[in-house]
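testing teh design pipeline on a random one, pls ignore if ur not involved
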């Protein structure tokens, strides 16, 4: 498809599409690889926007991409080339002490909530640090590459929690897991909790506000030199779901916010290989928004950093399955994790570790078989 003339102040987005199981047998130059994973694609969907309005959308085969870009204004050509380079760039491993998490195949992050009120598992691991740590050990043994420890619920309209109480919930559990060498992230928006958790042995900060909620958060991450996961939420205030304005194009709007936060981290001195992003499924987003995010997930590879997808037991599964309650959303959760892997997610955040690891093993087996088929 031919692109119409575009103004130089338009903003471009690229989404890999026309996936192929292998480049073997395809004409030279007709397929590109996504990162260093087992995904190849044969076309880019290019979207152009200005002021939030879509100007054009076209699907451009990989072998025609260079010619199509050459016809764009210089600024747009440069951005298109950058996005394409980011999509195919090596995703460097996370190095956490003597542990290395590689991204040549999708990894599992396990959810360990030490809260009384989280939407799915609130109260399950409260008031008994040893039992909570034992749950974390079981998750690691089941194949989780990273345990995400959280002490504050971020469900809609959850009450605020004093950081001292949050620290008291998570630090004893982190210390026990760290003593056994279990890799962990701390799921928090508060700088004080980040500091306490990192000192106790956590290795990654996972912030649903992308380091915007607490003015000291960026400083803490820079000083610690640790990896950070930047999640999209429509609000950096007390309720991350607050979103009165909605979205014009949810994939592009979320991409723009995460792009700005990646750039802010780079400017602050955080190395690109220490940054991950999460589009924030379910945070201030409608059912149609969430479905569009899942279908558009490959576009976030244009940020050039590993992508975390967190769909486990979330509301959209219930909305599409006769309002199944959170504990009864295993099938949908596994299906979302598998779909995220198909679209390039380097890590999936899950409650049900054993089942999700099994699903990703199946994905890897299918990918390997597709690559070796003749």
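output:
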């Amino acid at each position: 498809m031919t692109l119409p003339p575009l103004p130089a102040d338009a903003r471009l987005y690229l989404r890999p599409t026309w996936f192929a199981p292998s480049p073997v047998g395809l004409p030279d130059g007709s397929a590109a690889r996504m990162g260093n994973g087992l995904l190849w694609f044969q076309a880019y969907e290019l979207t152009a926007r200005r002021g939030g309005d879509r100007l054009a959308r076209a699907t451009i085969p990989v072998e025609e991409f260079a010619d199509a870009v050459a016809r764009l204004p210089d600024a747009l050509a440069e951005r298109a080339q950058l996005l394409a380079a980011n999509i195919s760039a090596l995703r460097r491993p996370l190095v956490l002490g003597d542990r290395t998490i590689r991204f040549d195949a999708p990894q599992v992050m396990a959810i360990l909530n030490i809260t009384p009120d989280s939407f799915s598992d609130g109260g399950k691991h409260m008031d008994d640090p040893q039992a909570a740590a034992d749950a974390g050990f079981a998750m690691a043994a089941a194949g989780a590459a990273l345990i995400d420890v959280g002490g504050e619920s971020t469900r809609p309209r959850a009450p605020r929690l004093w950081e001292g109480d949050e620290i008291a919930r998570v630090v004893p559990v982190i210390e026990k897991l760290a003593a056994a060498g279990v890799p962990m992230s701390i799921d928090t928006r508060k700088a004080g909790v980040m500091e306490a958790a990192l000192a106790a042995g956590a290795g990654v900060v996972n912030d649903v506000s992308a380091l915007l909620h607490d003015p000291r958060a960026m400083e803490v991450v820079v000083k610690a030199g640790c990896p950070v996961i930047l999640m999209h939420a429509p609000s950096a205030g007390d309720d991350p779901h607050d979103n009165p304005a909605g979205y014009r194009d949810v994939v592009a709007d979320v991409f723009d916010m995460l792009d700005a936060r990646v750039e802010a981290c780079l400017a602050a001195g955080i190395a690109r290989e220490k940054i991950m992003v999460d589009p924030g499924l379910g945070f201030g987003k409608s059912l149609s928004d969430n479905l569009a995010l899942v279908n558009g997930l490959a576009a976030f590879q244009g940020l050039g950093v590993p992508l975390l997808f967190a769909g486990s037991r979330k509301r959209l599964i219930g909305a599409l399955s006769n309002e199944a309650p959170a504990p009864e959303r295993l099938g949908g959760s596994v299906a979302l994790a598998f779909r995220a892997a198909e679209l390039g997610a380097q890590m999936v955040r899950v409650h049900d570790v054993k089942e999700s690891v099994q699903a990703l093993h199946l994905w890897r087996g299918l990918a390997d078989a597709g690559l070796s088929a003749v």
